[in-house]
Known about the structure:
By secondary structure, the chain is mainly β. The protein has 2 helices and 42 strands.
Amino acid sequence: MRQQSMKLLSFIMTLSILLFGWHPLRAAAAPAPEHPVRVEVGQASGAREDIVDVPVFIDPGDYGVWKYSLNISYDPAVLELAEGASVTDEADAAGPLEVTTAGGVLQVEASSFGDSYFIMDEKQKVFTIHFKIKKTAPSGPSHVTVNDSTYVEDEEPQAVTTVTPGMVTVSDTAAVTIGSGSGSAGQTASVPVYLENASADVGSYGIRIGFDPTALEVSSIAGDSGERFISSFDNTEGTLIGLWADAAGGDRPLRAGDRLFTIHFKVKAAAAAGDRLPLVVTDANALESFSVTDTSGKEMMKTVNSGMVTIGLTVASSDPTGAGTDGKTKITVAETAGAGNIFKYKNFAGAAADLPDVGDAIEADYALLPEDGLVEAANGDRIVVAEVNAAGQAVRSGQTTAMVASGQGTVLAAPSNLSATAGDGQVALSWNGVAEATYYNIYMGTLTGEYGATPAATVTGATYAYHVTGLANGQTYYFAVKAGDEAGIGPNSNEASAIPQSAGSNQGERQYDGGL
């Protein structure tokens, strides 16, 4: 009996071990993982109608991810999926991604990744969404979030509980263009800098432009954008800067098409005809070189188009002698036309000469320059000569002022070395005198090459200087001088310009530390 009881007890104990031996392990609570599965959405920025790429990552934490089903929400008023392949697989899924969209929600499903079939051990980019920013999107951030998403490690889907949302920032844009100018040695080449386009009002800008100091030097920089314009230049280093901020705090912003400022270069004797001298911003991505903000002070997405100064032909005019030359001037060009090219000219009479840019089509109002250079003109007419290639395009150009004697008289030469020095509300002019001249007419204008027919002042005798007073500070003035006698008046001198400034103004040349 006792022996049977012992056998029964042994059987019960064995059965208990078999049935309940692992029960304590099963009953113990599993420790929570330290690193759960995380889904992260990246960031991107762009302008309206740009295509932007937003990456999506999975960090498996302490798990392995064999399959995912992610729901990505975005604002359909700001973003839309790009045409074509709107989502790109980045994790080498076994098959094509399953992509569905509805009402600003993008669902992406995929499974079995790479050789291991799992996303394991470290964060991995799983796909990239290609959004197009809508034309009507407002500026600022637009969130891209993860909602109601799952992953599978073994069999059953598990909820993704840890997410990091992303965003697409819609930026306003601005494009600044450095224009083009031309001139020959000793002449002034004026180059405008303007706001070509902008998607929002501009409240400030700063730009640093490089130029070739062996061929060009800045004579002045005229601000066209209103108050609070500051400029400086260094003719040794070949750099200049222009800075402006809306003094009205956003009430007088700049808009597309507005001119920012105008640079007036003097072309040096070292510049060779035909040279094309670039005007560039060395690093447009560096804020110390180029900055454009909206009226709230936020930096805009910006681009800058480089400019150029083209060194033109060296063109001169003289009064011809001999029968049949009355009413004509003799045009000479120092340079020789290139192979297959010809010289053509146009007489602008008393109007401002408009030099063609390189590549411009030369129209029928330009005539072939005769071999002897004799062309009909009146004294003081402005004449442009262009070298034209076989395609009818300008290669280079230059200008001169006609010298034509009336009757048997002799035309006086043009005064030389006219210079202009700015003061407070005034400009001091000086020039070299002309033999036989009995008086000098001084002409003034606010546009280069345009002074009007009526002189601003006249001085007589051996007077080679004049102070022009009553001028507006901050305005660029252009000057020319003509020598005259009882037989008539000669051609314009070289042009000089200056910007009157009040005492203490920082307009003009000064050294700077390289930043804006």
